[in-house]
Design goal:
The complex is a heterodimer of chains A (about 110) and B (about 110).
Chain A (H helix, E strand, L loop, with lengths): L4 E3 L2 E4 L5 E6 L6 E7 L6 E7 L2 E5 L7 E4 L6 E5 L8 E8 L8 E2 L3 E5 L1
Parallel strand pairs in A: 2-11
Antiparallel strand pairs in A: 1-3, 3-8, 4-5, 4-9, 5-6, 7-8, 9-10, 9-11
Chain B lengths: L8 E5 L4 E6 L8 E7 L6 E6 L2 E4 L4 E4 L5 E6 L8 E8 L15 E6 L1
Parallel strand pairs in B: 1-9
Antiparallel strand pairs in B: 2-7, 3-4, 3-8, 5-6, 6-7, 8-9
Classes of the chains: A mainly beta (about 110), B mainly beta (about 110).
C-alpha cells in the first residue's frame, strides 16, 4: 500500500482557466474527502464520497467546483474559471467506514492562480 | 459539533517532553479525541486517538481525564523533526462530512536546538 497520492503536486494557472486535480486513495478505503487549506489555517472540508456517491458538499464549494469519483476509486476535483481566491493547497484524504476520525491524507496539490 | 481550543504556539528545547493541552468542553458521549500532525507542504498525519484515560503508541501518549472536557498530547523527548503544527479534533467514528473533522488553526510547535 503506497498511501494516498495526488497529482499534480503543484499547479500554476492564469485566472479564468480550468484546472483538474486527481486523487488516488488507499485502495481498501471506501470514503474519500477533499479539503482546502490556506496559509496559517487548518484544512477545511469541501466534499466527501462514499464509494462513487458524493454524499455531502460544503458551502465553500461554489458552483465552479465539481468533484467526481467514478467507479468508487480515484477522484477528480475540477475548478472552472479559476479566481485568485482559489489559490490554496487542495488535500485529499481517505478512510474506511466507521473510522471517520482516522483519515489518511495525500501530499496535496498546491494551486496558484495568477 | 464540539469545537476545540488549543494554544496557538509552543516552543521547546530538543530532548524535552512536550505537552499540548486541548479543551473540548462540549464533547459528546460518542465523540473521540483525535490528534493530527502536519509538516509544511504536506498533508496532516494521524497521530493518535482516544476516548478516555490514556492511550500510548510509538509516537505519542494521549491523556484524557474522567470528565473528558480536555486532553493532553504528550510527545516524549522531542527532536527538531517534531517541529510541526498539531491539531486537536473531536471526532465521531461513524459520522462523516463537514461535522466530523474540524481542524481549527492548531498549535505550532517549534523545537529549538
Amino acid at each position: 500500500d503506497t498511501g494516498v497520492s495526488q497529482d499534480p503536486r503543484h499547479k500554476i494557472t492564469k485566472r479564468g482557466q480550468n484546472v483538474t486535480f486527481r486523487c488516488d486513495p488507499i485502495s481498501e478505503h471506501n470514503r474519500l474527502y477533499w479539503y482546502r487549506q490556506t496559509l496559517g489555517q487548518g484544512p477545511e472540508f469541501l466534499t466527501y464520497f462514499q464509494n462513487e456517491a458524493q454524499l455531502e458538499k460544503s458551502r465553500l464549494l461554489s458552483d465552479r467546483f465539481s468533484a467526481e469519483r467514478p467507479k468508487g476509486s480515484f477522484s477528480t476535483l475540477e475548478i472552472q474559471r479559476t479566481e485568485q481566491g482559489d489559490s490554496a493547497m487542495y488535500l485529499c484524504a481517505s478512510t474506511a467506514s466507521g473510522r471517520g476520525g482516522e483519515q489518511y491524507f495525500g501530499p496535496g496539490t498546491r494551486l496558484t492562480v495568477t | 459539533l464540539a469545537k476545540t481550543t488549543q494554544p496557538i504556539s509552543m516552543d521547546s528545547y530538543e530532548g524535552q517532553e512536550v505537552n499540548i493541552t486541548c479543551s473540548h468542553n462540549n464533547i459528546a458521549t460518542n465523540d473521540y479525541i483525535t490528534w493530527y500532525q502536519q509538516f509544511p507542504s504536506q498533508g496532516p498525519r494521524f497521530i493518535i486517538q482516544g476516548y478516555k484515560t490514556k492511550v500510548t503508541n510509538e509516537v505519542a501518549s494521549l491523556f484524557i481525564p474522567a470528565d473528558r472536557k480536555s486532553s493532553t498530547l504528550s510527545l516524549p523527548r522531542v527532536s527538531l523533526s517534531d517541529t510541526a503544527v498539531y491539531y486537536c479534533l473531536v471526532t465521531a467514528p461513524h459520522q462523516t462530512g463537514a461535522n466530523n473533522l474540524f481542524f481549527g488553526t492548531g498549535t505550532r510547535l517549534t523545537v529549538i536546538p
